[in-house]
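Entry 14. Ran structure prediction on the chain below.
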Amino acid sequence: MGEEVEFRSNGDKATGYFASPAQPGPGVVVIQEWWGLVPHIRDVCDRFAAAGFAALAPDLYHGKVTREPDEARKLVMEMQLDQASREIIGAAQWLLDGGRTTGDRVGVVGFCMGAALALYAASLSDRFGAVSAFYPTFARTEYAKPDHSKIRGAVLGHFAEHDHAYTRERVDQLARELDGSAAAVELHWYDGADHAFFNDSRPEAHRPEAAQLAWQRTIDFFNTHLRAASGASR
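Output, structure tokens:
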């Protein structure tokens, strides 16, 4: 369904996987887990396109992918946070340019490392009207001291009961940081689930019921906050 594309990123060139819906719809930037732009992330883009969204996943590792945790950890540490955030924002701008999407803002969804990057990018740019963050791992972005109070879009968070990537206290802190700035905030906990519960390519972690609920919440959330804005902008 999708294709490899090239887009501009702060004067440089970046690449990604783009899936387009049958009819014009809102745009969504999809941000990878620490494995890279693997088939699972491409499939997520295809699923968004089937649901009526134009979805672009920027390749933040520039062609590198892995299935090994040690290698993934190395790739995360090698990733330049400033460059990654520019590429995410560049992907959003590419979606907004050239009539590829409806509306004047896009959504952003991320998983694990990508969820923290989604929140970080949304704190840096007003191009994002809605954020869906799946079990964010904040460690990689913490040293940049992201100011989540600068997020102006709506925020939807998905957190797993048995996930050790964050604590209840850390999620409560995020809620306080978003209070009064984000357009709307929904933070959900998934009982019995662990990290990566949405990833159906990892049967040891995948929880189908939680994944389906989180997906439907994300689609409904983006429909509410992106399609309403699209209608208002026309």
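The chain has one domain: 3-233. Will compare against last week's run tomorrow.
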